[in-house]
């Protein structure tokens, strides 16, 4: 099995098809019949072309790959449940977001948004900060591909008190680095009571290489995935979530440049991590998160002085794993076919009240929000590498709100929650349209 990233161009004219169907059809035309799409983003668009980047799982060694739902599978929600206000906060991995694109520096935004809603649904990139994870009490830690399936309407989420978290560790030439990882797991067991049924050291190397795409987005390549997949499949009844710790091949120059760039360089690790966790979550329907192991002692002993505050969590960590364990400890269970489950405590697409994204970001969650008629709040201040004009998408009336910052986003959330049209609290208040028979 090989995980790679592919760039494709899709004509801007949708020929009257719904957006999700249009992109599904065009993506399938441009990849092999054996390729499994696992991640999709529109990095740039104009009046002629959508420039898209696609993460693909490719079979290169004739290993059996299970059947899995297409990432474009969509189920429309029948109703909009207004019993609670549940916000979905997205800061896509690897796009160089000013806020949330570094080392869990979206955590303060998560806490702000959580204070304005009943439940916050977010993903590891927002709150993972090496040894720190300050997910609010009313927050749900949901892997990115699972979050996408949620808003696409194909799965539901069920809150849990705790999970059995399996830990997968790559072999490492330096046993001290390996033992640091084991100590991190034991610290989680001893301090906040995590249940870890086992730690598995992989026999063969899981090879992860960090790369940048032509758009400047962090991506990568993953080889040696089959042993990991097969082991997790065989042990599936023994765990509820999986944390993976493995080395990511990042050239020294990437690391050095990143820590001294004051945030100008895209975090090189996150993109390939997202590719791996998307693949495992899609294949096995389990909450998954990854933490990079330090490559060698030389890397461990590097010091960059006082770094940009957004990177500080990474600069002071040894294993980067604790945030992953803490998040997975209470990550919700995935419920297949939520429409057929009558339980009132299953959270599904009908329960999502709004989606908050950095301005310009178009992926499956944004496209699905358009189809599901879920309000989208786009934040200009969270600048990033994506070059799209959201106003060009076919949002329904009053379903797209472009705001300057997350403080203003909270105002829109409060307005949506109260059922108050945002224009009614601004001045001048325009005259309404009057239709006459003449």
Walk me through what this model shows.
The chain is of the alpha/beta class. The protein has two domains: 57 residues, no CATH class; 364 residues, no CATH class. Helix content is 28%, strand content 23%. The chain is globular. It starts with a strand and ends in a 20-residue tail after the last helix.
* Unreliable spans: none
β-sheet strand percentage: 15-25%
**Based on helices, strands and strand pairing, what is the structural class?**
alpha/beta
Task: Tell me the span between the first and last alpha carbons.
Answer: 68 Å
Helix content: 25-40%
Main β-sheet: number of strands, strand sense, barrel status?
10 strands, mixed
Q: Can you tell me the overall shape?
A: globular
The total count of helices amounts to 13
Count of extended strands: 19
Count of spatially separate domains: 2
Q: Could you tell me the mean pLDDT?
A: 93
- Could you tell me the radius of gyration in angstroms? 21 Å
Question: What is the gist of this entry?
Answer:
This protein has 438 residues and is an alpha/beta fold. Helix content is 28%, strand content 23%. The chain folds into two domains: 2-58, no CATH class; 75-438, no CATH class.
Write the layout of secondary structure elements.
Blueprint: E1 2-11, H1 19-29, E2 36-45, E3 49-58, E4 86-89, H2 107-114, E5 119-122, H3 124-127, E6 139-141, H4 144-152, E7 155-158, E8 165-169, H5 175-192, E9 199-201, E10 207-212, E11 218-223, H6 225-234, E12 241-249, H7 252-260, H8 270-284, E13 288-293, H9 297-300, H10 312-315, H11 322-329, E14 333-336, E15 346-347, E16 354-358, E17 362-363, H12 364-372, E18 376-379, E19 400-403, H13 406-418
Parallel strand pairs: 4-5, 4-16, 5-6, 8-9, 8-12, 10-12, 12-13, 16-18, 18-19
Antiparallel strand pairs: 1-3, 1-11, 2-3, 2-17, 7-14, 7-15, 10-11
